[in-house]
Amino acid sequence: MQEKENLAPHIEDINRALNEKLSEEQIEEELRTYTERYGVPLGSAKRSIVKKYDGDPQELYISTDKKIEDIEGDEQGLNIKCRVVSIDDKEIEVDDQPKRIWYGILGDDTGTIPYTLWEAKSIDLEKGDTIKIENAYVNMWNEKPQVNIGSKASVKKIDKEEVPEFERQPQKLDLKDIREDMQDLEITGRVLSIEEKTVNTQEGEEKQLYSGVVADETGKAQFSAWHDFGICEDDVIQVKGGYVRSWRGVPQYSFDENADVRFLDDDELPESEELQETSVYTISDLAKRGGAVDAIVEAVMIDIKSGSGLIFRCPECNRVIQKGACRVHGKVDGKADLRVKGILDDGTGALTVVVNRELTEDILGYDIDKAMDIAKDEMNQDVIRDEIEEKLIAQPLKVRGNVTSDDYGLMLIADEVDQQSIDVEKEARQMLDEVRV
Amino acid sequence: MSMINREVAWRVFASEFNESTLEIEGSEERAPSYLVTPLGAKINRLYAVGVLTEKENIGDPEEPMWRARVTDQTGTFFVSAGQYQPEVTSTLTNMEPPIFVAVVGKANTYEPDDETFLTSIRAEIIKEVSEEQRDNWIIEAARSLKKRLEVAIEASKMEQISVEELVELGFDEKLAEGFKLASEHYDSIDFNRYERMLEDSLRYVLPEYESKSIEEIGEESEDERDEELEDFILDVIAEIEEREGLENGVDYDRVKEKVMEEKEINQEEFEESVTSLRNDGKLYEPVLGNLKRID
To answer: CA angle, corner A415, sides to A408 and B141, nearest 5?
Structure first.
């Protein structure tokens, strides 16, 4: 509470800014009226008093700046002193006009917060600069506050000492727990694969991208580094200050030159072979996470959708055709294919699973030619789907593959499908033991 | 991101499902509605496995409307399927009870009057399964019940149930929210009964459990229950007749109320027993709306 704050230094501060125009008693009375009677925040109150008596608020010396941990939600007129933890730029479109903005993370000794700088930089900011921001505003983005430095705000570099030294403390996360749109994260993992690619950015520049898969004991994640840190396959790396973006429906840990990358001892994590083993996720976790790379789902097949079994595809566009006609190419000579589109449900959630021809042949126990023969004999292609239903519905399955997420929910593209055998007796005894405790 | 997530299929035992009396209607257009069980399972869709003990076509042969009973070791699911579930109706037409079946469907409720709240499953899928698959389901349903019980027991220690605190304790948010809803609706929840249900269900799948053939399960759920209930109904009528010296039978609703309360059964079960008593010539209606015994 502000009223508990010692006002004496602020009174002195105002006094100095006003060249001792008022007595200390007068200032104190004014200050109390503003802060206690009208509930004006101390910083605004000081500014208002100095202005009221024709002084210059810039002369105020003692900061009433907020600390980052105090920033809670929408607010105007935010003043903070902080360090630039990271800075990036990107081009966006405003009223059909390209516009360059800067964004990243600000930090002080109480925490970090994302920011966006909406106007051309008057000063050249760099990572590590200590700055004072005045008159910024805060809004909520993905349920978290974000600092916006708009046209009314000012930014200036200040002495390093004005912000106490702090150890950057990004949120440490297990790879299993990374979720779309997270910012300023620390991860530790072993690089299972990495490859260098040249990609074209939105601005048409060519950039080198180092991407691959990283794993810890809890799971795997795709990563992409927009800077050459010299990372090699099998390295154990600790990365501070990356963020998570969804790429093709799978959350991906991304980082750039703003991140701190450290190479750790090899024995910090188990060997690659062990980490290769795929983690089991509940469907509710996958929904929260927004997908996963190489996940295992243990669930029961509770529905087989139409378009499963023996299907025919357009030779031009590969779309599934109905009654010999493609939606786009009209009457075509369809190519036969086999697949399963079903619903897996593990009691925590449900997802759509898609099983390709090869795996569907394994499930049926015969190949596509035999499936065609059976369908011809029965004069009905649905018999293959009926057989899949017979084999899979109510069956506990263990399915491995990538899980993507979009507006239609989660989709698991199966790489492996196995019947899950449950040791009913063991499970029952174990639960009975737990209940009796 | 607004995702259309398919409603999860809850694994609940028949007894917990049938004790539910809290329905939450979707507030917006096309919003799903839910049935909340006493332990806070917020059910839109469920997945049940049991013994198909009975089926009855209440439609006609061309347009069947099936009512079926699927019994687990705790009670009976009432299952329905009509014209909007053509695959289910045609499958049911060809099924001969007793067999093990899996049912996926939507929770449905019916309130014939103020005091009666009936639950059923509107089937989307029905399929014959193996005993092994039935046992798998019991394990899943037991695990699900165990989690709800853990939430319920922890929550009941709180002066005021706080979803936030429960989540901090490591419980699933949906379960915590569900139990809070349930606790605001259900007067008192007998945790011991659910604990017993959990233990009995787990013992049921153990090899030392006196195993019963599928035929026995089918018959038992019919015969034992019906006879006992029928005798009780006759006793209730006799008692009231004698005490009040009634000659023209006892008011139907009085009998129904007393039997349903004492036996903890639903209206459908009561009506079925009365019908079979009539068919057996043990009951009749001397005046409209009264029941009298035929000695």
So the answer is: 65
How big is chain A, counted in residues? Answer: 437
Distance CA B66, CA B49 (A): 18
> Locate tokens 């949906």: which residue?
B174
Q: Which residues of B touch A393 (CB under 8 A)?
A: 102, 125, 127
Partners of residue B5 in chain A, C-beta under 8 Å: 287, 349-350, 409-410
Question: Which residue in this structure is represented by tokens 């060249």?
Answer: A19
For B85-108, the three-class secondary structure string (H helix, E strand, C coil) is: CHHHHHHHHCCCCCEEEEEEEEEE
3-state secondary structure of A361: helix
Are the beta carbons of B1 and A180 separated by less than 8 Å? yes
Is the backbone peptide bond immediately before A170 cis, with ω within 30 degrees of 0? no
Residue of B nearest to A422 (CA): B136
Instruction: For residues A178 and A173, give the distance between their C-alpha atoms in angstroms, rounded to a whole number.
Output: 7
Enumerate the residues of chain A whose CB falls inside 8 A of the CB of residue B132. Answer: 424
Q: Tokens in use for A122?
A: 């008057």
With CB atoms and an 8 Å threshold, state whether B140 touches A347: yes
Q: What is the DSSP string of A252-276?
A: EEEE-TTSEEEEEPGGGS--HHHHH
Nearest to A324 by CA among A340, A311, A339, A338: A311
- Which residue of chain B has the CA closest to A180? B1
Could you give the maximum distance between any two Cα atoms of chain B, in Å? Answer: 70
CB contact (8 A) between residue B104 and residue A302 = yes
**Which ipTM was obtained for this model?**
0.73
Question: For the purposes of burial, counting CB atoms within 10 Å of the CB of B49, is it exposed (0-12), middle (13-18) or buried (19 or more)?
Answer: buried
Q: What is the DSSP string of B204-231?
A: HTSTTS----HHHHHHHHHHHHHHHHHH
* A406 neighbourhood in chain B, CB within 8 Å: 3
pTM above 0.90, yes or no: no
What's the CA gap between A147 and B178, in Å, rounded? 36
B140·A434 Cβ contact <8 A: no
For residue A232, how many other CB atoms are within 10 A of its CB?
10
Contact between A105 and A183 (Cβ < 8 Å) = yes
Q: From CA B145, how far away is CA B137, in angstroms rounded?
A: 12
How would you classify residue A71: left for phi > 0, otherwise alpha for psi between -120 and 50, otherwise beta?
beta
Per-residue pLDDT, A3: 41
Least confident of A25-29, A251-255, B281-285: B281-285
| C-alpha–C-alpha distance, residues B181 and B92, integer Å | 36
Q: Given pLDDT bands bounded at 50, 70 and 90, which one contains residue A61?
A: low
* Residue bearing tokens 């292609």: A381
Predicted confidence at residue A2, as pLDDT, reads 40
Instruction: Tell me the CA distances in angstroms from B220 to B39, B225, B230, one per residue in order.
Output: 28, 7, 15
The pLDDT, as a whole number, for residue A1 is: 39
Q: Which residue of B has its CA nearest to A395?
A: B133
The residue to which tokens 């704050």 are assigned: A5
Contacts of A434 in chain B (CB under 8 A): 146
CB–CB of A105/A114 below 8 Å?
yes
Torsion of CA A176, A181, A182, A184, to 10 degrees: 130
